[in-house]
């Protein structure tokens, strides 16, 4: 059955096309730096946004039209949604997807029933994956929506809530494993606090680490070989989120001896909420050998919250792809569109416009990034800026020396002559590529 009867399979028609349901730049098999676009970009669709986001906001209810959805918590409704979702993946040509346990299956009135519902839907998803060749980029457990998690999950002050959360992670890991997921993500939605008057921060962080260590153990128990990710976000919902940015996550992982088991899933709008650029967050992760995957979206510079807009800013997608190419490409990760339509874009067709636009924006970003690398001037300028470290006293310092040696050197050589950083020139060179 066709749930999107007016939408054909989206094809590449090239930059001259005016067809809104065609790719102008994403040409899956086109080679860039020796790999196909499809392999470079590894696009994923977020089940929660595509199938479950009614587009409500704090001031008003849902607007999204979902004619296939009867609004019930039934397993049948959940199964039907999975059919709709795979038609969507087929028509957009998106190869991967991501979900929370509670997106794909309903949370029922006890855990055993919720687990049974999850298993039924996972079986259906497995069938869809087999028939279509689509793959699971990552799964996760929703440990933030239910009222029981209002004060945290892994960092709840209540041990019984912690235990419930652990049970949920176990079932979500089983589901991810069964579906051959390339990864499993931990976004600590409620892992943070609003006031220290009622919060024992040290104890909460110890508990969060314990949860993650149990997940590492369970991974071995079931033989799940996917990559674990932590997804940083600075605020929203909590005032203070423990996983506030890439550096905070890496420090937490290092402190609790978890660094070998986790990489980061960096989201653009979370980076900007943290007061960083996406390039900064990606660089911090890459420098630690820990960039795993990307939640591709963008924020609104005029708004201070997580607007999860579709990525359309070519500067942004280019900067992301420069980093991804620099790292040598994704291994387990990809570009998951953790993005939603505006509340005003309530028709099913808007889902297609949104994803097609995001895919084209990243395809252009990839092509521009490759052109910048082929041009080489930016890389040369960067190398030359640090050239004093390649020989002479720089080489001596990098190899390891002491204050006495450097003091002698400085006394002998006098005032260093500074070179310009050339920021404006470099920005001009970047702009030549747009
Ligand atoms: C919310 C997060 C969330 C994670 C998955 O802001 O981005 O959607 O990606 O739990
Ligand atoms: Ni996300
Ligand atoms: Ni987000």
Output the structural class. Answer: alpha/beta
Shape: globular
Number of helices: 16
Radius of gyration: 24 Å
The CATH homologous superfamily of the largest domain is termed: Divalent-metal-dependent TIM barrel enzymes
Number of strands: 14
Helicity range: 40-55%
- Characterize the largest beta sheet: strand count, sense, and whether it forms a barrel: 8 strands, parallel
Low-confidence stretches: none
Question: What would the CATH topology of the largest domain be?
Answer: TIM Barrel
Distance between the terminal alpha carbons, to the nearest Å? 42 Å
Characterise this structure.
The chain starts with 10 loop residues before the first strand and ends with a helix. The protein has helices spanning 37-41, 47-52, 75-92, 101-104, 111-132, 159-178, 201-222, 246-255, 268-273, 278-287, 314-327, 348-375, 377-385, 392-399, 403-413, 423-431, and strands spanning 11-12, 22-23, 31-32, 35-36, 43-46, 96-100, 135-140, 183-186, 192-193, 227-230, 240-241, 262-267, 291-295, 335-337. It is globular and about 80 Å long. The protein has 2 domains: 11-375, TIM Barrel (Alpha-Beta Barrel), CATH 3.20.20.150; 387-431, no CATH class. 40% of the residues are buried. It is α/β, with parallel strands linked by helices. The model has no long low-confidence stretch (mean pLDDT 98). Strand 13 (291-295), helix 11 and strand 14 form a beta-alpha-beta unit. The strands form 4 sheets. An 8-stranded parallel beta sheet has the order 7-6-5-14-13-12-10-8. It has a two-stranded parallel ribbon with strand order 1-2.
């Amino acid at each position: 059955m066709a749930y999107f009867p007016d939408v054909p399979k989206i094809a590449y028609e090239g930059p001259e096309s005016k067809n809104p349901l065609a790719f102008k730049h994403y040409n899956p098999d086109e080679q860039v730096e020796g790999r196909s676009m499809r392999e470079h970009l590894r696009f994923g669709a977020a089940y929660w946004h595509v199938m479950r986001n009614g587009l409500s906001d704090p001031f008003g209810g849902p607007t999204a039209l979902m004619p296939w959805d009867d609004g019930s918590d039934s397993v049948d409704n959940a199964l039907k949604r999975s059919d709709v979702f795979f038609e969507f993946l087929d028509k957009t040509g998106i190869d991967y997807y991501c979900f929370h346990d509670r997106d794909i299956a309903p949370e029922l009135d006890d855990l055993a029933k919720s687990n049974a519902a999850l298993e039924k839907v996972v079986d259906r998803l497995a069938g869809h994956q087999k028939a279509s060749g689509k793959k699971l980029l990552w799964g996760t457990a929703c440990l933030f929506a239910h009222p029981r998690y209002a004060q945290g999950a892994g960092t709840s002050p209540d041990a019984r809530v912690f235990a419930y959360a652990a049970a949920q992670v176990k079932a979500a890991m089983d589901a991810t494993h069964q579906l051959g997921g390339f990864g499993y993500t931990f976004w600590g939605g409620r892992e943070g606090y609003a006031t220290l008057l009622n919060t024992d921060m040290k104890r909460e962080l110890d508990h969060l680490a314990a949860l993650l260590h149990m997940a590492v153990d369970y991974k071995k128990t079931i033989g799940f070989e996917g990559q674990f990710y932590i997804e940083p976000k600075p605020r929203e919902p909590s005032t203070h989120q423990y996983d506030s940015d890439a550096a905070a996550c890496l420090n937490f992982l290092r402190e609790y001896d978890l660094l070998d088991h986790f990489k980061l899933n960096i989201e653009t709008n979370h980076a900007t909420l943290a007061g960083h650029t996406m390039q900064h967050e990606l660089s911090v992760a890459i420098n630690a050998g820990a960039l795993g995957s990307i939640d591709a979206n963008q924020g609104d510079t005029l708004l201070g919250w997580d607007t999860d807009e579709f990525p359309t800013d070519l500067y942004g997608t280019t900067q992301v792809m420069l980093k991804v190419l620099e790292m040598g490409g994704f291994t387990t990760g990809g570009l998951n569109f953790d993005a939603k339509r505006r509340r005003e874009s309530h028709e099913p067709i808007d889902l297609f416009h949104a994803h097609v636009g995001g895919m084209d924006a990243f395809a252009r970003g990839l092509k521009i990034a490759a052109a910048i690398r082929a041009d080489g001037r930016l890389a040369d300028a960067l190398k030359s800026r640090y050239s004093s470290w390649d020989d002479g006293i720089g080489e001596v310092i990098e190899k390891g020396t002491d204050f006495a040696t450097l003091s002698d050197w400085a006394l002998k050589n006098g005032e260093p002559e500074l070179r310009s950083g050339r920021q404006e020139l470099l920005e001009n060179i970047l702009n030549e590529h747009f």
